[in-house]
Structures are given as structure tokens and as C-alpha cells.
Amino acid sequence: MKEYFCIDFDDFNEMVFYSKVEAFKRYSILCLALFMITFGCSLAIRANTGGTPVSCPPYVLSCIEGQSLTFGTLTFIMHLIFVLAQWIILRGDFKIKILWQIPLGLVFGFFTDFTMWLTRGFQWDDSFEGYAARVLQLVVGSTVIGAGVSVQVRCRALLLAGEALIAAVARTAKKEFGKVKIFFDAAWILLALFFSFLFFGHWRFDMVGFGTLFSAVYVGFVVRFCSKHTPWLEKFFAADNNSFEDPLVFETKEINTLPLVITIARMHGSGGHEIGQKVAERLGIKFYDKEIINKTAETLGISRKDVEDKDQFISDASFLEYIITDNGISKEKFTGRDGAIFLTQSRIIREAAMESCVIIGRCADYVLKDRPCCLNVFIRSSEDFAVKMVTARTQLNESQAREVIRIKNRARANHYEKYTGLKWQNPDHYDIVINTAKIGIDTSVDLICNAVKVFFER
After folding, report:
1. Is residue 107 scored above 80 in pLDDT?
2. How many domains does the chain contain in total?
């Protein structure tokens, strides 16, 4: 059994199993990511068009004449306030390990002051050339921020207090992380405007301006783009790099010698599992769903339940498991699946794809995205159809089934976006999209099998 170094950061409700070597690599790259974020932020601020939304309030306060606190110090104080806010919001769910955000905020504050010193010469006059340089500097700075954030996400180590606060609010309000983040971005901008009017008597466009709105939108696009092109970091993080199978290995094989692989992503209650089983039986190939969980648990030396509890539930919105009791529904927290489990499952999926099979869920379409002989299917349905399917095989009543369906579909969408940077239901990721509410289970099986015949003959 491999020896793992376990870190539990409950701000994302995530139990992380890393080897000591992998943990060292992840935290080293995390420091680099923080430097990239602060350097990009400093570049954007030096353009005098406004910084990122979350950086605006401390930056405005740092510019007040006569006060001695630096931008980095005020940023660290803001992190302390965020930790306090999490304590208030989470109450009994607040874990002592969340306090790790404080030293992380200290490092972030130090990098903030250091990068502001590094970029002190990147300021321009009011000429046409000066404004052009400002715009270019804003774009470069925002790009560096986005790249740094994508690397930070890949590290899956510690969270900055601002991100953790958003996650805590999303968890408490049962809202999607992305929507809550938009609300917080707007709040930071409004707070910075308030400080601007309070201490300077007018709107300081050089502190809260075009650059603030630009970075709020543009950074997200950069993060998604970079997330698609940084899976190689997982190879670097792996303690045993030789055991990491590069998905591009498939490109070295003749296409006609590759086995048949069908991946099926499915909405909860759409019948995707049953369809996958029937397709595998009809084609006489292997079927993988819960088997991947068993193999993952065996590989990591942890219990099957630990893997199953984490499977497909991530901490961006801290989703809840709904358990039926005599009095209705009670709630228990799911914990997020960590990077070690995702990486292990990805390896198992690649191994399974060395022979013909059907693979259900677990981002298999993305894991095998560079494999030419792979048919990717998405199974969806109406909510009413899903409710009938769920109530027929469980003890849930209609209202309970609807709530569980929405929670699980939101969890799958967030899980997919976290590990791939892509939208789960985007049809561009799939070769076939089927609505079982329209054509039923058996017709869906016929459709996939016919598509397999046509696809692989071509």
C-alpha cells in the first residue's frame, strides 16, 4: 500500500490524499501561482484603469493620504475579515483547519507588496501612446491573473480566504459557486466606490474603472482557457511520474487497431446507467461504472465508501446528500473528491480503454479526449421523466425526487467544470445527445448501437 499524506481542508469540505512528494510539489507550485496572481494584479493596477474587483477595496484604502498601511497589509487584513466571516456563516461547521487561510493570506499580502514594488516603473502618461500602453498592460496583467488562478486550481491544495468565503456562502445559501462569485464581485466594486467617495470625495476612475469591469469578465475566460491546457500539471504533481499514462499515447497507435470505447455522461434519472448496461450487453463488451470506484479504493488503500461519498460531489457549492427518514428528508454533508482520487480514476479509465468497453460518467469523455476511436454520448431527459424514474426505484416522493435530481445534476455539472474547465451539458463535447423522455430507454440503446456501427465502419 502506498503511503499518503492526508490534509483535510474543510473550507471546501475536501479530504485530500497526497504523497509527501506530491504535497511538496503542489505547495511549491501554489506559491508560484500566488506570485502570478499578485504580479498580474499589480500590473493591472499600475495601468491606472482599476484593479480586479476583490483588490479594489484594499487598494483604495492604501491610497488614502497620511495612512501608513500598505496595499499588501490591507489585503492581509481583508483575508482575516474573510476568515472571521466564514466563522460567522459556518458556525458549527467551522473547522480549525480553515485557519490555514491566515498564513496563506500573509504570503499573498507579502507578494502583493513585493510585486507592487517590482511594477513601480510600469506607469504611463496621458498621451495616446500612454493610454495604449495602459490597455496593453491591463490585458497582460489580467491574462497573468487568469493563468495564475488556473494553476492554483490545479494545485488543489489551500484556498485563498476570498474563494473560501464565497464557497461558504454558496454552501449555506445552496447556490451555485459561479453565481455567488458574481454577487461578491459586484459587492467589492460597490464597496470600493463607497471608499472612493468617502475618502476622496469623488469617483477615482484610476482605482475603480474600466479595468475593474474588464478583469472581472476577462479573467474568467482566461481561467477556462488555461484549464483546458494545463492537465500536464497532474503528471508533474504525481509522485511516480513513470506511472502516469499520457493520454496522447493513443496517437501513436493505428486507429483501426484501437478497441471500441463508448463514454456516457448522464443526467440523474435519465436512464443513462441502464442504457450503458444494455449497450455493453448487446455489443458484448465490458461495462464500467461502480467498478471504477472499487478499483480506485483498492489502489489508494482507502475504503470504497470514502471514494463513493466523494464521487462527483465537489466543494464549490458543498452539496448535500438527502437521506430519507420516517419524518422526511434529513441532510448530511458530502465531502469533495480530491485530486488524488480524480487522478487515480483517470488512470483506471485509460487502462479500461485499452479494450472495448462502455464507461459511465467520471469525465471519461475528457480523460479520453485525445483518443480517436471513442464515441461520447450524453443522456438527458425532462425533469418529469427523471422524477418517474427515481420514484420508481427509490422510496422518494415526487417533491423529494425533484430536489435530489436538481442537486445531483448541479453537482455533476460543477464537478465536470472543476476538473475540465468545460461546461458539462455543452453538446460540443459529445458525438450524440439523447433525450430519453422523447424516445425512451430501448430506442436510445438502438440509436447508440446503430451509431457505433456507422461510426466505426467509417
Report:
1. yes
2. 2
Are 288 and 402 in contact by the 8 Å Cβ rule? The answer is no
| Domain end marker among 173, 201, 236 | 236
Which whole-number Å values give the CA distances from 359 to 171, 350, 371, in the listed order?
30, 10, 14
Domain match, 277 and 132 both:
no
Amino acid code (one letter) for 205: F
- Same domain, yes or no: 112 and 130: yes
Pairing of strands 357-360, 374-380: unpaired
DSSP letter, residue 260 = P
Q: Contact 260/285 with Cβ under 8 angstroms?
A: yes
Backbone φ and ψ for 405, nearest 5 degrees, come out as -60, -45
- Mind listing the pLDDT tens digit for each residue in 123-153? 888 888 989 999 999 999 999 999 998 888 7
pLDDT in tens, 188-246: 999 999 999 999 999 998 899 989 999 988 998 888 888 777 767 766 766 444 433 43
Report d(CA 273, CA 294) in Å as an integer.
17
Which residue range(s) make up the domain with 427? 245-457
**Spatial distance between the Cα atoms of 270 and 70, rounded to a whole number of angstroms:** 55
Does one domain contain both 220 and 359? no
Instruction: Please tell me whether the overall predicted TM-score, pTM, comes out greater than 0.70 for this model.
Output: no
Looking up residue 402, the CATH number of its domain turns out to be 3.40.50.300
Whether 287 and 404 map to the same domain: the answer is: yes
